[in-house]
Amino acid sequence: MTSTSALTVVYNGLLQGYQFQMEAMKENGMPDSSFHFRSEKMRESLTNQIGSLSQMAYDLGDHDLASTLLSVATEFGSDATPPMPL
User: In which domain, by residue range, is 57 found?
Assistant: First the structure.
């Protein structure tokens, strides 16, 4: 496994954790105001984490992965487009 493959695994794990938490909040009937607050905080956190992974990929020399991750972070951070696994 290359070092950038490990970043892809970490990205997919972060994404799966985010999706799980979102579904858990919906299933548990969280009030709308709390759901909005928590989901926005989680979105902001995940955006920052994906941005950090992008920087790591760039530093490791995988510029294509860095660009892909940066695009995902930008789209997710600006218009909440749900990211897809890599």
Answer: 3-78
Question: 17-61 pLDDT, tens per residue?
Answer: 999 999 999 988 889 989 999 999 999 999 999 999 999 999 999
Does 84 reside within a domain? no
Instruction: Tell me which residue of 4, 14, 11 sits closest to 63, measured CA to CA.
Output: 4
DSSP string, 16-51: HHHHHHHHHHHHTT--HHHHHHHHHHHHHHHHHHHH
Domain total of the chain:
1
Residue 66 lies in a domain: yes
Q: Are 7 and 56 in contact (CB under 8 A)?
A: yes
Full-model pTM:
0.86
- Which of these, 27, 8, 33, lies nearest to 85 by C-alpha position? 8
Please name the amino acid found at residue 41: K
| Residue 21 resides in a domain | yes
